[in-house]
Amino acid sequence: VITKVHYLVLTLLPVSMLGAGSDYCIFLVSRYVEERKTGRGKTDSVERAVTWAGESIATSGATVIIAFGTLAFASFGLLRSIGIAVMLGISVALLVALTLVPAALSLFGDRIIWPRGLDFWRKKIGRENNYYARAARFTAKHSKLVLLLALAVSLPAASTVLTSTTSHDLISQIPPSLESRAGYNIVSQGFGAGTVTPTYTIVQTPVVLVSGNWINVTALKAISFAENSTLAIPGVSKVYGLTHPSGDPIPFSSFSQLNPPQQQAMILSMKPFLGSDGKSAMVWANLSNEPYSDAAIATVARIRDNVSVLKSQDSLLASSAMYVGGATASVSDLTKSAGADFLNLTTLVLVGVFIVLLLALGSVFTPLRLIFTILLSISWAMAATVYFFRTYFATDLIWLLPIMLVVIMVGLGLDYDIFLVTRIREYVAGGAREDEAIDTAVERTGGIITVTGLVTAGAYGTMMLSQIPMLQQLGLAIFIVVLLDATLTRIYLVPSIMRMMKRLNWWAPSFLRRVSITQEEKLIPPMPLKTKLAVTVETLTIFGLVTVVYLDYLNNVYLQEYVSRSYSAILSGINLWTGVILALTSFLATYFLMRGRAKPGP
To answer: Which domain covers residue 557, as residue numbers?
Structure first.
């Protein structure tokens, strides 16, 4: 058994399959209709739809599968369960789109677009009056302005995301209407939250502590020392253990002076905190704060630090194994594990997606640009989600959301970019110039991208109807990022960047390149072999240095703290007004630069 099926899979799996599967089907059917509009036969239209749209669907499907597949390497069972289940579900949706949909098109033909049929599509307004054609012309004139505005907005968005805190309160994920949540609230109010889910320290000693009618007074002094030391830690309200069975100390050191009934009563009171072998003891600590709050997690960290102090001050504890556990300790460990998972899984998914796009698109720059633009969309969506839940619900994002959102959206959000880029590449490979190919692709695919984005956004938006806050946050974040990605990023930002990069969009080594070299490029003299070797050595050296620094960072606590302090100091100077000022400055600078340009002749 790799992992168990988490209950959240029952929500995420159908939503993901519906969103991605609908996109794939719409891409194929829309391409079929487009080919039929040009006068091609049904069979030829199906073949061309599968050839061109099928390639983009297979590429985007592969990126989604890789993205969710990386979750299978997470240390948290919830993420593994979601990753494996959705990866298999998307694989089925992709298989259906590439087999069943073409078969249905071949079987039903034009009847699949009933009742309006092809006549309606042939009568649609022309390119010059089309919104997406106007958007393409706008990006042609203001590509630098669009890019500057996007970067300006991204600064405060990234600052908001990176400086925001996350919530570890798993109890808040239980809907207030449920009986279990109501019972928890009553117990917490009556006895204290720390009583419901205490933190405990297990002490495995090499000697017997209690056996029959006898107790090891010398060993119990060491246990009492551990209990009293734990009680002195800020954030601990009460301690229970062998020498504090009811929360107050008992006179165990005068055990021999007690009569047999009193001795039996004392031993009986110790039993709940004694291991079955008589050598293990449990120090039970009630925390002053909510068990899943940041303050409680900080208290657990102090308890763990205190273990090292105890071992250095007592010989018996030094030879004993001590473990800190409990609900708060578990959340603390999961948080640290999730932090490592976030870095590792994000790196893995970005590298995996880059390799797939490199092979599929035959370009080095375009995959990097795809990843860059989707990360921009994710930063905007997360900033909006943080603002919305803090403003209207006074809650922080759950700590699992960032890693889930990045992995999910790197996969799903690339669909629309891949669909647009493959169409642009198709026109460029057919002999069209860069600007002409971009204009035509945006005009012909803009409507489809918007529709599919609305479908996917709507599918994930239904999770906002859930009573579980984590699903509400995830649904809102994906809803925003897909909507932004399909309506703004792919229509304005992507064409703007591609216009400025020109032929660099399709550069790749000859064995990977999918777009043929133009006559103008053939006139450029080849790079000398020495220069190629120097660039290669320099690149490998930089990559090696980055790898060494990264490995050192993972194992160097001082470096991590220094980077964190420096990072916080930089981000503290970036806020919403910084973004507004940068956006206004970018607009004014671009306006004055363009105002003096001569208009092109007719």
So the answer is: 527-571
